[in-house]
């Protein structure tokens, strides 16, 4: 049996969150190691390499805000693809030296807390054991892929690929391809492969309210000017908006605007592209059905205009009657999805309910992930009472400040359950939470505190707040939304993100810290 390795902090995952933790915990003089299941950096950007995969947060704010890192890095596009994102992580490594503190091919399977010594004991799939005072879970929102229980899937003779396990040698040129799923992943992949395959059949259960991306090449000279004049302001500004992006919700109620004013407002957001028409629109979109109907009607008109001679396709992609309110399932960004790429869409299934059988060389499963909680619950994490967190959360996720949980001391997660995670730009929430955790650890070291754990009372109050905020809006009106934990059979439906926006979330976190970490119990070192 190998010797136990001892650290101050063990971080699980080497995406944006894990790297931010490592870079900044080092500055406190702590010993830190990242345990990473993959063989290189990047987290979601290491694992997701399907054709067309790219980020849907607009740069320059989808990157680390540290000037040391943005000063010498230039993106080629506003919405870079996975290859460029992977190159970015390599650049960060060259600049700061990340990999020397990452153990790759190290999937953590269990984490057990020992209350007698205030230490976590972690075990990897291959049996190595690690011990640390703190555990930082940076496992991302979409690290556990989901394949529905399709009858007969194992009897399919062609290739089957889930999008997050894309093989490097997959050539779809001239192939007959079927794709199940039209979420963000499905839409990206469909528009990319449609021109090269012989035939593409898309199996759509629910239409995606996709928005125009309006991709732009970045001019290096203009970017340099922006760096000199505005970058630091842009990074501060992203902490002040609901979504951590640069656009923000407009407080004016939709119906207070005249029809003309509203149309011009919508046109402006539509032309700006990206998420402007969603988290840059009238804020009551998420609360008022009437307001939402206005947004949907505009979106439907715009989409139908792009497929003018196909009434049947119009009804499939942008139905007259909305299947759910606009924006309560995450819209995605598209570049040519609604044009001529779709040859055939059939209802759910491979042998469809009308008896038609579809034959393919390759079947693509763009069926998503056990979103938000899957990365954490797939590790057997046991705290003070020995109960696995997966079991605790069976009746619903309970957290304090969307980053810690009662009975699991010295354990934090970043960009996970009940944080603003998927309602926000990744790096914004990640840096906000990561900085808070680092400051908390610094405080504990200064005050000789050996463990910190949320009280049940504080956890219940916070989780209740998330539930109440979630129930006040239209989020629950989409039957299969992963925002509401409804995409995985058996998962308890509930609002999984903090739905009050970044500034409100930051205030709650700061209030706790400024009041001596209110809502947490702390234990001092005995000697
Ligand atoms: P997803 O949004 O969960 O979409 C899964 C798709 O599979 C949906 O269309 C779903 O239909 C369908 N599906 C699931 N089970 C099915 C079944 N049994 N039968 C038929 N269809 C079924 O997953 P995703 O597209 O991978 O995206 C997940 C999230 O990852 C995104 O929302 C985003 O946050 C992130 N992502 C981001 C980017 C980016 O930044 N550019 C790209 C890709 C993904 P229903 O809609 O009816 O449930």
This entry's quaternary arrangement is single chain
Instruction: Provide a count of the helices.
Output: 16
CATH superfamily heading of the domain at 5-41 and 98-144 and 370-524: FAD/NAD(P)-binding domain
The 3D shape can be described as globular
Main beta sheet = 8 strands, mixed
Structural class: alpha/beta
Classify the fold: give the CATH topology of the domain at 5-41 and 98-144 and 370-524: FAD/NAD(P)-binding domain
Distance between termini? 32 Å
Number of strands: 17
- The name of the CATH architecture of the domain at 5-41 and 98-144 and 370-524 is 3-Layer(bba) Sandwich
Proportion of residues in β-strands: 5-15%
Mean pLDDT: 95
